[in-house]
Design a protein that fits this description.
Blueprint (H helix, E strand, L loop, with lengths): L1 E4 L2 E3 L4 E2 L1 E5 L2 E6 L9 E4 L4 E4 L1 E6 L1 H9 L9 H10 L6 E6 L6 H7 L5 E5 L5 E3 L1 H7 L7 E2 L8 H4 L4 H17 L2 E6 L8 H14 L3 E7 L3 H6 L8 E9 L28 H13 L4 E5 L2 H13 L7 E5 L5 H6 L5 E5 L2 H6 L16 H6 L3 E4 L10 H10 L17 H6 L3 H6 L16 E4 L8 H4 L4 E6 L2 E5 L1
Parallel strand pairs: 1-6, 2-7, 8-13, 9-10, 13-14, 14-15, 15-16, 16-17, 17-18, 18-19
Antiparallel strand pairs: 1-4, 2-3, 4-5, 7-20, 10-11, 11-12, 20-21, 21-22
Helix pairs in contact: 1-6, 6-7
Bound molecules: zinc ion.
Length: 483
Amino acid sequence: MILWKNAQIHTNQKVVSSMITDKGKIIALGDTFKDFNFDAEINLYGMHVYPAFLDTHLHLIGYGRSLYQLSVRDLNEKQQVLNFLKDNINDEKLFVENYQALGITKSDLDLISKDIPIILRHSDYHSFTVNSYVLDKVGIKHDTGILIEQSSIPVLPLWSELSKDELTKMTELAIKKLHSFGITSILTDDLAYFNSYEETLEIIQSVIRKFPMRTHLLIHEDVLDTYLKNKPKESDFLKFNSVKTFYDGTFTSETALMYETFKNSKSNGERIHSKEDWERLLKKVRSNKLNISIHTIGNRAFDEVVSSLKQYPLLSGIDRIIHASSVKLESLDNLKGMNVALDLQPQFISSDLPWAYNKFESKPILYPFKSILNNNLQMALSSDAPVEIPNPLLGIYSAVTRKSNYANESYDMNETLTLKEAFDHYTKDAAKTLGIDNLGEIKVGNIADFVVYKHDILNTPIQLLKEQQVELTIINERIVYRK
Ligand SMILES: [Zn+2]
C-alpha cells in the first residue's frame, strides 16, 4: 500500500492532496489519512497529478526506429535534405525517415551514391524515394525512383531488414520515450511489418516485461491467418484489439477517397480493396467474432466504411475508424448509435493545413473535432507516431489552437476543442474506446496509472503548454519515469 502525499491530485471531481494505491489500483483519495500501515510514502512536493495518457494509434516499433535512425523531419528544402544525405553517407546503407516529398529523384540520389542502398521514407509512411541501387536490388524499373503507395511495396522487405536485436532496442527506446511523455497505454500496429509475426510478438512481450506498457495490438489483415492459428494468451499488459486494414490512401499521395477532386491528378482518390476483397475481409472478421479498425482518410471513404459496418455489424466490442481526417458533417449523423470509435490525430492539423486544402478544387471539411464531439460520438485522440511526435501536449495544443506549423495561422476555429475536452480524449474517453472503464480518470477503483507535472497543465496558457515536461510517470502504482 502506497501513500502519495502533499500533491495536487486532479480527481474526477476536485483537487485533493493525498491518494492511496494498492495492488495497482487507487483505493482512497482525500486530504488526511491516519491509521494505515503504508509500505511507502511518496512526497510529491505540491506537484500536479493527472491520469496518465493513452495513445490509441501509433506504430510502436516504427516509432522506436525513428528514434534509432536518421530523420529529416525538420528539413523542408530539397537542397537541405541532399546536403544532409551527403554528410551522413557511410559504406553500408543510407536509410532516412520523415522525408517530406520535396521532389528528390533517383538521379539526385545516384549523385550521392550508386554503390549502397539509399532509401528516403516519406513522412506519410506510405511511400519511398530510392536510388538506382535499390531499384536494381528489388528488381523494378522506374524513371524517378519516387515510389508512391502500392508501387513502394517491393522496397518494404529491404527497408525492414532488421535484426531481432535491433528491433528489441527500437522497442525499448520507443517505450522509454512514451513514458517520458506520460503515456502508459497504447494501441499499436506492428505485427505485420518486420521479420515475422511470431518474432515481433515475442519482442513486444519481452520488452514490456522490463518496461511496462499496457499494449493493445492491432492485427494487420496480412497476419490475421497466423493470429487465428495461434492465438497467444492475453494478460493485463498485452491484449489483441482488432483487425487493421486500409480503405483508402493519403492526402500526400492524392489517394484519399474523396468527393472533391484533387487539383493536380484530377482524381478522387482510390480504394485499396476491390469490392469482393473488402466483403470477403469483413465476413471473415465477423465470422471470427472480431472487431475491425479501418484506416479511412477521405470523406467518401468514410461514408462507404460506415455503410459497410452497417451491413456487417459487430457482435460485441468496438470497431474503429482510424484518422477520419475528412468527414462531411451530415455523415456524422449516420454513425449515431453504432459502436464505432473515431481515432483522430490533432497534430495533422498543424502538419497538413493549409497545404491539404490547396490540393482540392473545392475546400473539404478537415479534422472536424468539435462537430464529432457535438454529435456525442466516441472519439480518441492519438499521434500516429512516428508520423507525429507522441507527446499528448503537442496534440492538445493542435486541437485547441488549430494552428498550422507552416502558415502560423489558425484554421476553422468553429472546430476547436477546449483544453479540457482535448485532455479528456487523451485519457478517459480514449480508454472508453478500448472498452476500458476504470482507466483515464483519478477515482477510487481505477487503475493507478498517472502522470505528474510541476505546473497545472489544465490551467496553463496554451502558448506555454508545449513546454511543460513530465516529472514522473506511474504505471500500476510503480514509477517508470523520472525527469
Ligand atoms: Zn498509422
